[in-house]
Amino acid sequence: MKKKIYVDGQTGTTGLKIHERLSLYPELDMITIDYDKRRDPQERAKCLNEADIVFLCLPDDAAKEAVGLITNDTTRVIDASTAYRTAADWTYGLPELSKENRVAIKNSKRVSNPGCHATAFILSVYPLIAKEIMSPYYPVSCHSITGYSGGGKGLIDKYEQLDGKNEYTKAPRPYGLNLNHKHLPEMAMRSGLMEAPIFVPVVSNFYQGLAVSVPIHTKLLNKKLNAKEIHELLCEHYQGEKFVKVMPYGDDSVLFDGALDITACNNTNYAEIFVFGNDSKGSAVIMTRLDNLGKGASGAAIQNMNLMLGFDEGLHL
């Protein structure tokens, strides 16, 4: 029997991408709702409770409302909002975090899809903290450069307006300057840090793609690894992973004219991790790139669904 899938919030950027990916699955039946009834609580509740798996592509409050409308104990939920990413009774939907987390996702009824910046940051830092190389009290800072699609339809419209001079497109724009970005709680909790990192995201005039950079003073690590040794540790942690790749160390052929191409993972579910270093200065930097609409959103959601339904994890990805 085919599994029934419902996407609540299917007209937003993430919802549309999830729908696009789900169209590849003859194994599934989609539950649809009339456009003019998409905010009707009774109609939504009917769809939510009929589904085997629900994707929530909604603002936080609306996601919480949707969960409250589910009255059975069989509907399984993948929530793309920030509402439950640090909730103890929800599973964090990053399979590559650990073998135990992948098993938890397979068995969970409530999975919270990670944020895009958070995914790249946690993939970079978690192995160092889990192996006690980096202290959970290490003073971590990071920055991220991202395409404007991460801001949803509102920001997309601002960047793509064509009525004369567009101030949004003239230069990259650091934002979140109150240092309280909505991804910070999960970045700290899911990486194992006791304090949130100092995080400055930058949005720029390209549609999609994201790269997070984490600088490291190697002398402040519990074990004084150099950059190449940090690279080896990450290679070991992600060995055998399909969607997380640690790129070759010291190989300029993986760069674009000596620089990192932020968009190289676009339209995929891959995250690629780079390590750069200067041992004479005791410094290293971990850079992780991904598609903010792929591994940072809809791709990750589909990967989690595959696990939850017992499909091959990489099916249609």
Q: Can you describe what's shown?
A:
By secondary structure, the chain is α/β, with parallel strands linked by helices. It folds into two domains: 3-114 and 297-308, Rossmann fold (3-Layer(aba) Sandwich), CATH 3.40.50; 116-292, Dihydrodipicolinate Reductase, domain 2. 31% of the residues lie in helices and 21% in strands. It is built from nine helices and 13 strands. The strands form two sheets. It has a seven-stranded mixed sheet with strand order 8-9-7-10-13-12-11. The protein starts with a strand and ends in a 9-residue tail after the last helix.
The count of β-strands is: 13
Helix content: 25-40%
The CATH topology name of the largest domain reads Dihydrodipicolinate Reductase, domain 2
Tell me the span between the first and last alpha carbons. Answer: 23 Å
CATH architecture of the largest domain: 2-Layer Sandwich
Using the coordinates above, name the CATH class of the largest domain: Alpha Beta
Per DSSP, the total helix count is 9
**Uncertain residue segments:** none
Q: Tell me the strand percentage band.
A: 15-25%
So, the CATH homologous superfamily of the largest domain? Dihydrodipicolinate Reductase, domain 2
